[in-house]
Amino acid sequence: MRIKVSVLFILIFATQCKNIEKKDAQERDWDVIKTSRHYRDYATFIQNHPNSNNLENAISEYLFLKDSLSDFIVCNRYNATIDKVNNTKLLFNQSLTTIDSLRYLAFNYLKNANGAMEVSSKLKYKISVPNTDVFDSISKGQFEFHFYKKHIPVTYLQPVITEISKGINDYKNYLSKKWYQTEYAELEKDKKIAIDALNDQKLVFFDFTDLEAKRITPPPPASD
């Protein structure tokens, strides 16, 4: 009995330590990012730390910096659009889905592996695989969030971005195994950094609050 209690205590202590380390990493990253004047840095922070207490500040700063660019141009024809329906359902590329499906949808969107999204020549671009002499094609797709109200819905966004970030991480792992025959978590640091650089700015945010009156409201979820 004492052994079981000791093991349980160790597991709880280890989990608490891991959570503290994760929170400390979020705060350290925020201390660095919050001085940046580049909106893409905030996109990276949001993707890597969707549960941060600074999520709303990061999105607000992202929107401010992006909207301050007079020559800002974005090609969003390859982006997957995300629009809120209610607190549990949303439109992913105009198709009604649930938050817990987003990890799978995000990964498959980036991998470009299933049916209707099989347009690899349009959704991918050719690169030199980092630290090799090999060339490959990777996804140019991003995930586009639309805001139609002044208030940023943090409570809704956190689980949504969390699941999409998991899908992006799954794509990183897919590339790692494809290129290096190794799990992403086990890669050398330089290879991790290289894969991160290709995939750490997959989130895009747009403020359409001025268009609220002209907004086409998404259809309500089908009744069960």
Detailed description of the structure:
This protein has 224 residues and is α/β, with parallel strands linked by helices. The protein has one domain. The protein has helices at 2-33, 39-48, 55-67, 102-111, 120-123, 154-180, 189-199, and strands spanning 80-84, 89-92, 95-98, 124-128, 135-139, 143-147, 203-207. The strands form 2 sheets. It has a 5-stranded mixed sheet. Strands 4-5 form a two-stranded antiparallel sheet. β4 (124-128) and β5 form a beta hairpin. α2 packs antiparallel against α3, α4 packs across α6 (154-180) and α6 packs across α7. The protein is globular and about 50 Å long.
Chart the SSEs and their pairings.
Layout: H1 2-33, H2 39-48, H3 55-67, E1 80-84, E2 89-92, E3 95-98, H4 102-111, H5 120-123, E4 124-128, E5 135-139, E6 143-147, H6 154-180, H7 189-199, E7 203-207
Parallel strand pairs: 1-6, 6-7
Antiparallel strand pairs: 1-2, 2-3, 4-5
Helix pairs in contact: 2-3, 4-6, 6-7
